[in-house]
Structures are given as structure tokens and as C-alpha cells.
Amino acid sequence: MCKAKIFDKSYEIVSNKEVCRGYFELKVKAGSGLKHCSPGQFFMIEVPGVFLRRPISVHYIKKDTLSFLYKVVGKGTTILSDISSGEIRLLGPLGKGYDLGICKTFNHVIVAGGTGIASVYFLAMKLGKKGILYYGVRSSKDLLCLDKFEKLGWKIKVSTEDGSKGHKGYITDVLEKNLKSNDMIFVCGPVPMLKKVIEVAKFKNVKGFGSFEEKMACGLGNCQGCALKVNGKIKMTCKDGPVFKIEQVEL
To answer: How far apart are CA 103 and CA 101, in angstroms?
Structure first.
């Protein structure tokens, strides 16, 4: 679990390029203080002309480079995608990531939906052994990072809602048919997918962790805007999560 100091400062932009239509990868010079953040953590990124910062998960950290993979969906990310040089202000690393210490004796299963793939790549890098990636998107045009997981030696199962690649339908259908009792799940994606994964995991008595994406204004738990019911109590996704044990989350 990460115990890194939280920084609020500007970092030099290395690049900010479109990796496929509508998806960008922002790279900044990380500096020594950011090298200790863990998979599942995120940063609040300051966008010029936009009042609230945007929460974006860490895609990976390699040597002196910190990477964010994001989709352009509104005003903030549109402005962000137009920035190609200079400096950008980041607050983080924030939140609690995955507890990798208890995962070593299980088979690793990552389930990602849409841009949820962005943060779980860093997780796959840190898990220490190969596993299976279940990845669901709307269309083959939305597939990201497959080459990165292939280089790590992971097996990949893909689904697209339009049938343009892999299984036609939802990735949770593929997961349900293949999940085994000695698997441990790590999941990140939209709420309907998370609900189904939790349902499947409970039915098969499989434990795991989920990274939950809620709207955030501050990223520090002060605004109380990202509440989630966990183990019968109200938790803040930004401060207490975003990673929680899936068997404890009530959606």
C-alpha cells in the first residue's frame, strides 16, 4: 500500500498525444517523489480555464515518466488534449491503491471496461506474475493497451458490444463462464459492469478488489461528493478508496 507524500506542484510535460481516436496519453516528468505511488491511485489534474481539477488514474510509471491515459469526453479533457508542452499542475498521488501483498497465492484475473483499462495496466506491471485480462468495450475502435498486456505475457479475452472483435456482448458473460475458485479479481470500469462482476464473484465465492470511479471535486474527501457504501458504512471514494474489496461494496 502506498504511503507516498502528496504533492501539489507543476511538472514538465513530456508529451500529450492521441493514441487512437478520442483517447490521449499524457506523459510528464515524474521526479523522485512520485515513483512510490501504487496501482489504483490517481491525481487531480489542473486544466487551464476550468474551475475544478480532473481526477485521472495513473496509467504507469517508468523511470522518470508518469503516464495518464484518458478519453476526451467534455470541456476539461478537450482543453487538456490541446496542451502539448510546458508544465501542468498535479495534486497527488491520491487515494488508496491495491494491496498487492495478499494477492500472490491466487491466479490473477483483471476485468476492465472501457477506459478502466488505463489504471489496471500499472497493476499488471506490479503484480509480478502473468494472468488473464478480460476486456470489454463498445467497439473494436475503443480497444486500448492490448499490445502492452501482450508484452507482459498476459492472456487476453475481449468482448465488443457490436461484435467487431472477440465475443459479441458483455465481457461479464465471458468472465462468468471461465471464473474459477482460486482466481482473484481486480476490476475497473463502469458501474453496471462492476455490479455484474460483484454478483458473479459472490456466486462463485471469489474475492477481489475493485477500483470505483465516482465524480470528484476535491480528491481529498472534503467535499463529500464521492460517497460509496462499503461494509455497511459510507466511505469516500477519493480518500478511503478508490480501491475496495469487492465483497464489501454495496452498489
So the answer is: 6
Rounded to 5°, the CA angle 77-64-244 comes to 60
Burial of 203 (0-12, 13-18, 19+ CB in 10 A): exposed
What local confidence, expressed as pLDDT, does residue 100 receive? 80
Q: Is the peptide bond before 48 cis (omega within 30 degrees of 0)?
A: no
The structural domains of the chain, ordered by start, are 7-94 (2.40.30.10), 100-250 (3.40.50.80)
pTM (predicted TM-score): 0.92
Q: Please state, in angstroms and as integers, the Cα–Cα distance from residue 90 to each residue in 14, 46, 63, 198, following that order.
A: 14, 6, 18, 32
* Separation of alpha carbons 233 and 37, rounded Å: 27
> How high does pLDDT run on average in the chain?
90
Query: Please, which contacts does 76-79 make with residues 24 or more away whose CB atoms are closer than 8 Å?
Result: 76/47, 76/50, 76/52, 77/24, 77/47, 79/47, 79/48, 79/49, 79/50
CA distance 110 to 208: 10
Backbone angles phi, psi at 28, to 5 degrees: -130, 160
**Kind of pairing between the strands at 7-20 and 23-29:** antiparallel
Crossing angle of the two packed helices 171-178 and 191-203, in degrees rounded to 10: 10
Q: Could you write out the DSSP letters of every residue in 43-54?
A: EEEP-TT-SS-E
Q: What does residue 89 show for φ and ψ, rounded to 5 degrees?
A: -95, 130
Say if residue 242 is preceded by a cis peptide, omega within 30 of 0: yes
Q: Cell numbers of 91, please?
A: 495534486
> Looking at the DSSP assignment, which residues form a beta bridge with residue 68?
26
Tell me what the mean pLDDT of segment 69-89 comes to: 95
